[in-house]
Amino acid sequence: MNHPTATAPDLVTGLRAVRLWESIAVAPAAPVQVGVQAAGGCGKTTLLDELAAAYRAAGVPVSTSAVGVDPETTAVIVDDAHRLDDSALRALRELTRHPRARLVVAYRPWPRGAQLSELVHTLGRTGPPVVLSGYTPDDLAARVERGLGSEPPAEWLDWLLAQTGGVPRFVEGVLADTAPHDLTRRGVPSRVVEQVQQEIDGLGVEGRACAAAIAVGAAAHPDVLAWLLELDPAVVVPALSAIRASGLTDGSDELLPLARKAAQLLTPVDQRLRIVRKLVRVQLDRGRPVLGLLRPFLESETAATADDALAEAFEQAGVEAAEQAPELASRFFDAAVSAGTPPVRLAARRARAAAIAGHFDEALRLADAVIVDETVPDRALGVQVAASVLAHRGLPARSAQLCRWSAEHLRWPGDRAYAAVSLIGTGRLVEAEGLLGAVTDPGPPTSLSGSTDQLVDGLRESITGSAVTALSQLTRSASLAEPVGGATLVPDTPAAIATLAALHCGELDVASSVVGRAIEAGSGGPMLAVRHRLLAAWIPLARGDTPAARAALDAAVCSPDSLQARDRLLATAIEAGIANRDNDTTALNAVRGRARQAIAEHPADLFGLLALGELAVSCARLHDQDWVEPHLRAAFTLLGELGDPPLWSGLLRWKCLQAAVVSEDADTARTHVAALEAMAAHNPMSAAMAAAAKTWLGVLAGEVDRGQAEQAARGLHAAGLTWDGARLAGQAALRTADRPTMLALLECARSLQGKPARPRAVGEQGEHNLLSEREREVAELVLSGLTYKQVGKRLFISAKTVEHHIGRIKQRLGATSREDLLTRLRAMLDS
């Protein structure tokens, strides 16, 4: 026999609960004996109300008691059976003896007396209980969408699920009080506070005390709570069971976030402080964090008022906040001062917190005050802060001066090494050697000292010795620094310097590995996070993968205005490099002003050469290189003082050669070619650049040797200069008068860019037929970056004729602007 179907009400969720409702709605006369178990707020009452409604709709009377009930005619639906006395529970057990009884009994997991246990056992003979829990993510999404009338934001749903644990009571409390667009900006909804208050009031004295302690941050463990609250453990165990049964906790006995906040609001501050005093003392004695325990007290006006017992804890919380939530650090330090900590003791830590938070003016002001005050206990920390901020702002010489002074007067781990690094970075190798030679007591062999020793050794080797050895030492330095993470402020990280060295000698895989591990380890802390991500963005740029470089740049820089000089130089160079590789003159023009500012505010140093070289090429593309020439001269002077180390000078020479090629300045090009040939034996990339440099001279003169050009282009590609290799092949193709050579080199360029070979048959079909052969030649030359005049010279036609060709192409392709035209041409010719 087929039964009619029924659809459960929206608020009935969970597979077994839905099936129970459906079975009753379809066959209300059928016998039912089932238990419903759930913690508070998980929907027992809602389910029972809907079951009662289904029975009544079928004409079946419903009773909430088994006393005096005819089981043949009446359904018995009982809520909160855990609250019933023994006689009522015995009556329910008696009802289960009737074969036609319709009985639904709901109860919490605790308390579970003997009579209720017997009843649950008896009901279980016909099947397991229906266990209700919180909304699943799908249930929650459906419930919220019904309430709002539209699909809620995914982030908001994630927040709601995390805060409420999906407990229906709290979900409904939030929905009644808060809209999705402003949820995260509000406190605990008043309805949720009332719900938590109701549950806590029912816990008894011991249960309320335990709930307050857990809300403050105590572990939900009987021994911990018994010690903390001075209670008998035998009393704490049932109190914890009551809290679990109330629906206020998650599966790990932690209070749900909204329940915790509500419980904190409901507990007087003085009571919370009494608990916190004992907890933080234990945490401090064990070297464990206290930030989570004390953070709620920042919202209270009574926090840390003349309380010596908490002064040390607030100070430690400020130190922890500097790493995790730097904007809060100063507030914790203020609380520590209010609690009795002398302000002078916190001066250096305030400076450090300000630096990590990005408040560099304040950090320098505070650090300077610390350095000159001999009564401050952490003057070396003040030097660390000032030296790091100055390096961040593009003042490496001043940073070196501070580190050197600290090495002679104060000593902090790494000060002498970082003084040497900054001295070498500004071309003062002899001074660095003298400083390092004066060391008599290197101090204990820690991870930090081992890292800085390797850093200095690797940097010196990169100047005077082997690229392979230097890169190995610098990579080991970065590895040793990883356990330190962001605990120590430094002017630069070993990972950043190792990555720069790897980029300068074409070891892109090494660069990617080193900087990736630094990002994961948080090396250098928040101050160096953007620097590492910018260096990571340079790797796809070097490979010519501009979409990946753009995505990485956008991920690294949230607000360009917030960047300091060193990061701004790097970010601007990446942006210009992307525009240059995409032949996007509009974007190059847009970055011109920022490039001038970035170079002007950052004096030449060893670690900024990568960016300077990229900007030199971009300036040449804009015919605006006069203003960058003084900075290039300063850079080559610095390199000369270091003995023109190939590892650091090779790539800058190469970029300057590219700028000369763009400007068709053969004399300047020959100067850079000679320098590159002199350093060809230093490392594989130097050899590839030297070979390619000689080829470029021939290309400039219109003398293209196909074999030589292909070999040089592929050598650049193999050395990590992917885009440069493709550009050399492409430009050689466009400057040869021999058509087979041109086609072969164009295909070489395409293959180096990872593009499939393009068929060039005379009868080729599709959109390629939109352009004549001459128009295709003009289009390819324009896309390569040549001006109309240069295109005309190459094709033996006038610039005006080139302009007419471009006008016809634009009309034929339906382009609305020059940028649109270039985009369409690039897509068509690359297809």
Write a concise keyword list for the protein shown above.
831 residues, 5 strands, mainly alpha
Distance between the termini: 65 Å
Total number of strands? 5
* Major sheet size, sense and barrel closure: 5 strands, parallel
Helix content: 55-70%
Please state the average pLDDT score. Answer: 87
* Low confidence ranges: 759-768
**Category from helices, strands and their pairing:** mainly alpha
Strand order in space, largest sheet:
2-3-4-1-5
What is the overall shape? flat
Count of helix runs: 42
As a whole number of angstroms, the C-alpha radius of gyration is 37 Å
Based on the structure, what is the oligomeric state of the protein chains?
Answer: single chain
Explain what the structure shows.
- It is a single chain.
- With 831 residues, the protein is mainly α.
- Helices cover 65% and strands 2% of the residues.
- It has a 5-stranded parallel β-sheet.
- Strand 3, helix 3 and strand 4 (102-107) form a beta-alpha-beta unit.
- It is flat and about 110 Å long.
- It starts with 14 loop residues before the first helix and ends with a helix.
SSE diagram, text form:
Blueprint lengths: L14 H12 L5 E6 L6 H14 L4 E2 L11 E4 L7 H10 L6 E6 L6 H10 L6 E2 L5 H12 L5 H11 L3 H8 L14 H12 L2 H13 L5 H8 L3 H13 L11 H10 L2 H17 L5 H4 L13 H17 L1 H14 L3 H14 L3 H13 L6 H14 L3 H14 L5 H11 L3 H9 L9 H18 L2 H15 L12 H11 L3 H14 L4 H17 L3 H11 L8 H17 L3 H16 L8 H13 L7 H13 L4 H18 L2 H13 L5 H17 L5 H13 L3 H13 L4 H14 L20 H11 L4 H8 L3 H15 L4 H13 L1
Parallel strand pairs: 1-4, 1-5, 2-3, 3-4
Helix pairs in contact: 1-2, 3-4, 7-8, 8-12, 9-11, 9-12, 10-11, 13-15, 15-16, 15-17, 16-17, 17-18, 17-19, 18-19, 19-20, 20-21, 21-22, 21-23, 23-24, 23-25, 24-25, 25-26, 25-27, 26-27, 27-28, 27-29, 28-29, 29-30, 29-31, 30-31, 31-32, 31-33, 33-34, 33-35, 34-35, 35-36, 36-37, 36-38, 37-38, 39-42, ...
